[in-house]
Amino acid sequence: MKWFQSLRWRLFILFFIVSYLPLTIFSTVLLGRMETYFIKKSELEWLSKANGIAMQIKEANYLKENKNYNLFKSLIKSRSHEKDLNCRIVVVDNLGFVVADSSGTALNKTIMNQQVFSALSRQDKAEKAPDAHIMTAAVSVVDKDDKNKVLGAVILSANIDDIYSSLDTMKSQVYLLSLATSLFTGLLSFITSSFITKPLKTLMKFVQRITRGQLEQKVDVVGKDEIAELGNAFNHMAEQLQQVEQSRQEFVSNVSHELKTPLSSIKVLTESLIFQDNVPVEMYQEFFQDINSEVDRLNNIISDLLTLVRLDQREIPMNITSVDLNEMTQNILKRLIPLAKKKEIKLVYESHKDITAEIDEVKFTLALSNLIENAIKYTPSGGDVKVIIQSDLQDAFITIQDTGIGIAKQEQSKIFERFYRTDKTRNRETGGTGLGLAITYKTIVMHNGSIQVESEEGEGSTFIVQVPLRHTWEGVVR
C-alpha cells in the first residue's frame, strides 16, 4: 500500500470520488425526471387512444341500443390488435358490468375499481401499475343524444416495456459517462498534481538536508503562487536557522572566553604560589585576594547565564503588581549615590506626576539598575546622569541620559547581545559580565515593553524604556 501514501495517488482518488458522487447523484435525479416525463407523456397518449375508442362506441350507440353486439365485439377485438394500440380493451356499462373484452377473460364480470369509478364519474384517468410496466387508461362513454348521461367506460391496458428499455439504455450510458468523466478528472488531477508534488519533493529534500545539519540550503523560487510562498518561507527559515546557529557558536565561544579568562588568572596565581619558595605571607594574602576576586567573577558570570536561560525559557514566574515608578526609581538612585559620588557624577531625577504601572518590581528594578549603573560607569568624572519619568494614557517612559563616552552607530544594534562589548569598553576595569544589557532587554520584553538607544561618540548616550501601564497576559489586559 505504499502507492496510497503518494500524494498524487491520494489526489487521484480524492478527485475521482469528489467528481463521481455528484455526477451519480445528478444522473439518478435526471433519470428520475426523465422517467416521470415519459410516464406522463404515455398517460396522455393512452388517454387519447381510449377517447378515440370511446368516441367510436358513442357514435355507433353500441351501449345504448344493445344491437349489433357481435359487430361490437369484433370491433373491440380488432382494434386491440392494431399496430398503434396493441393493448387489451375492456368496455363496461354504467354499472361496471363487462360487455366487451378483447382478451375474453372478464366477460360477464363486474369491474368497479377506483379508476373505473372515476371514469363513470366523467373523470378520465390514466396511471401506471405500481408493480408492473403496465399503463391503464379509463375514459367515460357518454350518450350521443344526452351528453350528461354516462353509458359506460372504456379501459385500455398496455405494456410500456419500451419506455423502460429506453430508460435502461440511457441509464447505462449516463452512468458510464459519469464513470468515464470521473476517471478523466482523477487522471487529470494525477497528471497535473506533478506540478505540485515536484516542488514539494524538492523542498522535502532540502528539509532533510537541514535536519542533517546542512543549514546553508536555499531553494530557487519561481512565480508568486502558494508554492512560491512556501519556498520563500523555507528560505527565510533556513536563514534564521543559520543566524541561530551562528549566534549559538558565538555564544559558546564568548562563554568559553569569559570563563577561560578568570580561570587562567587563577591558574597563574596558584602556580606562582606553588613554584616559588619562601613566599612571604603578604604575597599569599594578595594572591588569595586576587583568586577570590576571579572566583567571584566566575560566580557572577554563571549566575547571569542561568538568569538568561531561565528568562529565555520563561521559567521565572512574573509577579505582576501595581508599582509606583517614581518611588521605585528614587530607591534605585539612593543605592547608586555612593558610586556616583566616588566619580563625582551628578545624579538628576525628573518627574512631574505620580505614575503607577503593573510590573514585576524585582525584575524591573534589576533591569533599570543595570541601565543607570552603566550610565555612571561609562561617564567620566564630573559628568551628569539624568533619569526622567513620563507617561501618556497607555505607557510609561523612563529615559536615562548620560554625558559619557557614547556608543558608535554601527555598534548600537549589538549592545543588547550577550557578552557584546564595544571597543572602548572591552577592558575590564569597569567590571561586569557582559550580560547585564542582555538581561535588561529580555526583562523589558517580558513586560511587553521596548528599549531604544540614541548615542553619539564622545557626547553621551540616551536609553528610553517604554513599558505599558497595564500588563497584558497573552492578549488579555488585566
Number of domains: 3
Number of helices: 11
Placed side by side, the strands forming the largest sheet appear as 2-1-5-4-3
Label the structural class: alpha+beta
Q: What helical percentage do the residues reach?
A: 40-55%
Uncertain residue ranges: 1-5, 423-430
Overall CATH architecture of the largest domain: 2-Layer Sandwich
Strand tally is: 14
Sheet with the most strands? 5 strands, antiparallel
Question: Could you walk me through the main structural features you see in this protein, from its secondary elements to its overall organization?
Answer:
The protein has 478 residues and is an alpha+beta fold. Residues 1-5 and 423-430 have low confidence and may be disordered. Helix content is 53%, strand content 18%. The strands form 4 sheets. A 5-stranded antiparallel sheet has the order 2-1-5-4-3, sandwiched between helices. The protein is rod-shaped, with a radius of gyration of 51 Å. A hairpin with a 3-residue loop joins strand 9 (384-391) and strand 10. It contains 11 helices and 14 strands. The chain folds into 3 domains: 2-167, PAS domain (Beta-Lactamase, 2-Layer Sandwich), CATH 3.30.450.20; 226-312, Helix Hairpins, CATH 1.10.287; 320-477, Heat Shock Protein 90, CATH 3.30.565. The chain has helices spanning 7-60, 62-65, 69-80, 114-120, 161-192, 194-211, 226-274, 281-312, 325-342, 361-377, 436-446; strands at 88-93, 98-101, 125-128, 134-142, 150-159, 320-324, 346-351, 356-360, 384-391, 395-402, 450-456, 460-468, 472-473, 476-477. It starts with 6 loop residues before the first helix and ends with a strand.
